[in-house]
């Protein structure tokens, strides 16, 4: 649809100087490392309760404590871990499914392609959060269902992009050549076409990662999604709402961590898109 | 030209139908149903079955779907399974509230986004452009519900400049209405102004590179005249179409902000109705949210098709 | 009468605005949903009302007589009008009772109505009830039977069908509705308010802000935390109800694995840190308990509290004696809008159980799925709540929780005997002794473990007085006054 073309131009940022791009990449890498090593860091467990409830930041608890007396720094780190991990799972699911659909629809054409396109159009018509909420309601609570819900939300966009790429690649000579030699369709798709649309896929993966992280946070904020006591930045913000007047750091810490991650991801994605754009 | 419009509309129909099927079946796949929730604290299976029958849920799903479609054709969206009120009445009310919020947010986004976009576009790659780029990146990265909570924390709880939440009725006077709109509309605008700013910036940069603008500069026309007569005027329509798409998206996409601010809109109605398994309300509200989005896209498509003949042929896949 | 109320009105403001979170599910008094409770005693009237000591007083019934065997009660109705103008007759009472017994409409009173085996109109002003047992809680039950106008029930989505002190005025679905003085009410001179406006404000923060801004006078439902934050704010007071507490409990499905072992369940009972739960989850506004009745109730036996206190050493001991080791259980909780505080309580319980070597997994379901699983007893452990509706112990214990039909799937014939005996006599002392034994068995069985009792807290302006909650927790607002 034309609106796609219109909107894809909207979010293209001014070409940022390289150092901003690399700074974002560095922050991202740092967050990923922190999130990965969180379990082995010498800190209290994220579910360990104490009587120091809703304490403001102090030497013993750098980010303060929550209503159960649990250390907020630990919980924010694990919350970050959850967000990144679930986001990654969701992106993986949507990439695998979306790429498969896109390749097949784009290459085969005909009625199969039309049916797929209409189906994807209908899924795209749903606001992504509402679709995620609906799928989460069907699948029930928990990390796996959340990742699946995110995956389903991401399939249409990935499929369209892969399909568009496949369509143009299908008309190239090398594909024509492979077909005339008798190469099997699967082989053509995986060995010839896929590598040439990989750059499109990778950009979309990062862009959807942003959406996935924010959607997971929103789902947890609404009480669907990750199960307690595993921290999620979204559910921490939900709890923090009750203490807006009394414990502002409880509101600030998880939100800041979430924003920082998403910002780094966004800048990274912008940079990727600029480089990928200059390639083609 | 007519063929293009007809083709577009024809594509719209199966999508709309498929979407309704997805909504209808999807909501029934979620575990639990309204009968269980309405049946009181200690229901026996007969009580639940009786309520289910009363709501028409004992019929097969395809039959329920056909009956619902029939009703849809005559404008009868049924009644809420929870409180028995006509769904169409509920939707009109809630849509009005969401629309009010969306328009206010859109106006703010256009003003802020427009100013930033023009400023950045007129001085591409300058320090100002980079700063605005960073600002827009931040705006796009802030989670809506966090922004909302922070707004409430600072401006409502601490400073007491605005009400904490809720929509002031029109009877309370324009000042009260604006005060209740301020925080939620700003929250949404923070996320959408960047979209407009970036789009406008890119449009302007391209426009300034175009031949007739360069000619105008070469002719020696003053900068502000060029901006007014060439750059801005030519960017207006594209920006308005972006605004249209954003509006279509906001109708269904404002759910979280509506929940944070207790704004009685369509999004909040949807989430509550889903939680109550109020099938008829979920169906009706989803149709509205999705319909608004599809319609906006359709109009934009047709509009672009009218404007640019190249698009008509290249997008006819 | 009208002149009297306007003279009254000039001395005090006669309008009240209150806020609640849920909207009414039509104006049908057979539905006790949270959004409906505000209008029950206002639009409708009951045969009798109970005072604070549990003594019934005449309502629509002017007088009544019990037969010698206690199984037949005859009520004589007074002259009263419905809002439609029609006289209240015995036929309406019969219609109402049958409606409460009909599974399609009367689900809320369900089981309790089964004690009424027959209802007859002897003449337009006389009703005869036949009971299956002496039913000591009869007047508790009748206070929740709201007499309906049999001709007006058809429109109950948009109009009320009652004879109470107020009738429905302006109605904006999802936003607000007005309760307007019904001047032909038989006790109209006791009604102090002319208008009650009910505003629907789903978000607690918004409601609290509205109260502080003076836009509303009273909040009908708040969480303990919101109430605590409003305590001490200028111009606002928090009124504490002493009736109809909400009991938060932990239930074990005794057919699942180690939960069939009574000593294991008792170990869990001793691992519940009730005081911390009351402090953290319910902001100190709830009272720890392990009996089905609140500490202030006559059936409560204070001596029994030591048998269920938080004691991890005793818990470890019981666990060892039970022979169960390395158990892993799942506790079902739900979103706060359905089971307030359940997931927070679960987290505290998880930490306590970890200390005696029991692993607890927490799953938090959304409302509809939580209910589905609950009804099917599809859980290991469940955290939920019920409202102690009614003053009499006979009806305080919901049958879906305690007893043979309970969802814990536990069967204790001795317990059933005691309960039947307690329902069969009207002698208070005999019943007190029986209920002490019943409480003891509940603690020993440890299939249903009450945790805390939460009493309702209603934040309101200091100028508001006279709010009453009946024994089921339903508000009675006719006697409320607002001083300017």
Kindly describe this structure.
The complex is a heterotrimer of chains A (280), B (317) and C (484). Chain A is mostly helical and 280 residues long. Chain A has one domain: Orthogonal Bundle (MetI-like fold). In chain A, helix 2 crosses helix 3, helix 2 packs across helix 10 and helix 3 runs antiparallel to helix 4. Chain A is elongated, with a radius of gyration of 22 Å. The model of chain A has no long low-confidence stretch (mean pLDDT 87). The model of chain B has no long low-confidence stretch (mean pLDDT 84). Chain C is built from 14 helices and 23 strands. Chain C has a 6-stranded mixed sheet. Chain C has a 5-stranded mixed sheet with strand order 8-9-10-1-11, with helices on both faces. A 4-stranded antiparallel sheet of chain C has the order 4-5-7-6, covered by helices on one side. The longest helix of chain C has 18 residues. Classes of the chains: A mainly alpha (280), B mainly alpha (317), C alpha+beta (484). Chains in contact: A-B, A-C, B-C. At the A-B interface, helix 1, helix 4, helix 5, helix 8 and helix 9 of A face helix 1, helix 6, helix 7, helix 8 and helix 10 of B.
Report how far the terminal alpha carbons of chain A are from each other. Answer: 21 Å
CATH 2nd-level architecture of chain A: Orthogonal Bundle
CA-based shape of chain A: elongated
How much of the residues of chain B is beta strand, in percent? under 5%
H and E string of chain A: HHHHHHHHHH
Please count the helical segments of chain B.
14
What Rg of chain B is obtained from the alpha carbons, in whole angstroms? Answer: 24 Å
Percentage of residues in helical conformation of chain B: over 70%
What is the string of SSEs of chain B from the N terminus onward?
HHHHHHHHHHHHHH
For the largest beta-sheet of chain B, the strand count, sense and barrel status come to: none
Topology, number of strands of chain B: 0
CATH class of chain A: Mainly Alpha
Largest interface: A-B, 58 and 68 residues
Structural class of chain A: mainly alpha
Strand content of chain A: under 5%
């Amino acid at each position: 649809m034309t609106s796609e073309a219109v909107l894809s131009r909207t979010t293209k940022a001014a070409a940022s100087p390289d150092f901003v791009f690399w700074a974002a990449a560095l922050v991202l890498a740092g967050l990923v490392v922190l999130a990965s090593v969180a379990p082995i860091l010498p800190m209290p467990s994220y579910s360990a309760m104490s009587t120091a409830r809703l304490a403001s930041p102090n030497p013993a608890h750098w980010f303060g404590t929550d209503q159960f007396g649990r250390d907020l720094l630990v919980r924010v780190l694990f919350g970050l871990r959850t967000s990144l991990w679930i986001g990654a799972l969701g992106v993986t699911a949507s990439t695998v499914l979306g790429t498969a659909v896109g390749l097949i629809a784009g290459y085969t054409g005909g009625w199969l392609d039309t049916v797929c396109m209409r189906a994807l159009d209908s899924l795209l018509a749903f606001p992504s959060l509402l679709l995620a909420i609906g799928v989460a309601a069907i699948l029930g609570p928990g990390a796996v269902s959340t990742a699946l819900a995110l995956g389903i939300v991401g399939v249409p966009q990935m499929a369209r992009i892969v399909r568009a790429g496949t369509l143009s690649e299908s008309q190239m000579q090398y594909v024509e050549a492979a077909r005339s030699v008798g190469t099997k369709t699967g082989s053509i798709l995986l060995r010839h076409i896929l590598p040439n649309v990989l750059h499109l896929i990778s950009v979309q993966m990062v862009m959807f990662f942003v959406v996935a992280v924010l959607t997971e946070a929103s789902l947890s904020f609404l009480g669907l999604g990750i199960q307690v006591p595993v921290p999620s930045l979204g559910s921490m913000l939900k709890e923090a709402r009750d203490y807006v007047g009394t414990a502002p750091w409880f509101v600030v810490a998880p939100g800041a961590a979430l924003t920082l991650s998403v910002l780094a991801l966004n800048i990274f994605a912008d940079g990727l898109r600029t480089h990928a754009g200059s390639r083609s | 030209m007519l063929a293009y419009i007809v083709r577009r509309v024809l594509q719209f129909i199966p999508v709309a139908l498929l979407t309704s099927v997805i909504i209808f079946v999807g909501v029934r796949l979620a575990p639990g149903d309204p009968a269980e929730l309405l049946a009181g604290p200690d229901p026996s299976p007969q009580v639940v079955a009786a309520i289910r029958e009363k709501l028409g849920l004992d019929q097969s799903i395809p039959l329920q779907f056909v009956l619902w479609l029939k009703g849809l054709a005559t404008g009868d969206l049924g009644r809420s399974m929870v409180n028995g009120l006509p769904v169409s009445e509920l939707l009109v009310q809630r849509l009005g509230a969401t629309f009010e919020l969306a328009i206010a947010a859109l106006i703010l986004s256009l003003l802020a986004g427009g100013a930033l976009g023009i400023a950045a576009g007129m001085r591409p790659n300058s320090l100002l452009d980079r700063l605005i780029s960073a600002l827009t990146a931040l705006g796009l990265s802030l989670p809506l519900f966090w922004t909302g909570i922070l707004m409430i924390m600072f401006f409502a709880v601490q400073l007491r400049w605005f009400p904490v939440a809720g929509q002031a009725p029109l009877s309370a006077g324009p000042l009260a209405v604006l005060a209740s709109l301020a925080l939620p509309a700003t929250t949404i605008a923070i996320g959408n102004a960047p979209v407009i700013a970036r789009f406008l910036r890119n449009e302007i940069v391209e426009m300034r590179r175009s031949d007739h603008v360069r000619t105008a500069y070469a002719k020696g026309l003053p900068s502000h005249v060029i901006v007014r007569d060439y750059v801005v005027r030519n960017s207006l329509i594209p920006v308005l179409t972006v605004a249209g798409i954003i509006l279509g998206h906001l109708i269904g996409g404002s759910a979280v902000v509506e929940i944070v601010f207790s704004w009685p809109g369509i999004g909040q109605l949807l989430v509550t109705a889903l939680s109550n398994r109020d099938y008829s309300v979920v169906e009706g509200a989803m149709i509205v949210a999705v319909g608004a989005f599809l319609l906006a896209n359709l109009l934009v498509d047709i509009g672009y098709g009218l404007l640019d003949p190249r698009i008509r042929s290249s997008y006819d896949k | 009468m009208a002149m009297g109320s306007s003279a009254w009105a000039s001395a005090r403001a006669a309008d009240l605005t209150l806020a609640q979170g849920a909207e009414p599910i039509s104006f049908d008094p057979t539905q006790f949903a949270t959004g409906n409770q505000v209008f029950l005693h206002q639009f409708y009237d009951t045969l009798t009302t109970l005072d604070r000591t549990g003594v019934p007083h005449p309502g629509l019934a002017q007088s009544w007589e019990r037969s010698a065997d206690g199984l037949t009660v005859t009520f004589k109705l007074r002259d009263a009008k419905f809002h439609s103008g029609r006289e209240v007759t015995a036929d309406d009472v019969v219609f109402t009772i049958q409606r409460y017994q009909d599974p399609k409409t009367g689900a809320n009173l369900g089981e309790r109505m089964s004690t009424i085996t027959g209802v007859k109109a002897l003449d337009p002003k006389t009703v005869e009830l036949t009971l299956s047992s002496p039913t000591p809680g009869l007047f508790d039950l009748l206070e929740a039977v709201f007499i309906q106008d049999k001709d007006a029930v058809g429109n109950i989505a948009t109009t009320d069908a009652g004879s109470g002190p107020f009738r429905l005025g302006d109605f904006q679905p999802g936003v607000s509705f007005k309760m307007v003085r019904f001047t032909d009410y038989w006790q109209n001179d006791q009604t102090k308010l002319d208008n009650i406006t009910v505003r629907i404000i789903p978000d607690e923060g918004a409601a609290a802000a509205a109260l502080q801004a003076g836009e509303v006078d009273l909040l009908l439902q708040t969480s303990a935390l919101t109430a605590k934050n409003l305590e001490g704010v200028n111009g606002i007071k928090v009124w504490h109800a002493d009736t109809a507490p909400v009991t938060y409990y932990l239930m074990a499905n005794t057919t699942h694995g180690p939960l069939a072992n009574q000593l294991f369940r008792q170990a869990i009972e001793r691992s519940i840190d009730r005081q911390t739960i009351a402090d953290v989850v319910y902001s100190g506004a709830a009272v720890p308990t392990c009996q089905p009745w609140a500490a202030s109730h006559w059936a409560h036996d204070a001596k029994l509290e030591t048998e269920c206190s938080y004691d991890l050493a005793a818990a470890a001991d019981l666990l060892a004696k039970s022979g169960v080791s390395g158990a892993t259980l799942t506790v079902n909780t739900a979103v706060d809008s359905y089971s307030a505080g359940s997931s927070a309580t679960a987290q505290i319980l998880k930490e306590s159980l970890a200390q005696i070597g029991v692993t607890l997994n927490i799953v938090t379901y959304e409302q509809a799925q939580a209910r589905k699983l609950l009804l099917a007893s599809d859980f290991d452990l469940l955290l939920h709540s019920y409202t102690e509706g009614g003053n009499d112990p006979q009806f305080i214990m919901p049958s879906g929780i305690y007893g043979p039909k309970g969802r814990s799937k536990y069967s204790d014939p001795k317990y059933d005997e005691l309960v039947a005996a307690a329902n069969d006599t009207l002698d208070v002392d005999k019943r007190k002794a029986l209920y002490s034994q019943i409480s003891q068995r509940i603690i020993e069985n440890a299939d249903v473990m009450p945790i805390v009792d939460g009493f309702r807290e209603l934040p309101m302006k200091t100028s508001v007085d006279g709010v009453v909650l009946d024994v089921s927790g339903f508000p009675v607002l006719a006697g409320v006054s607002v001083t300017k």
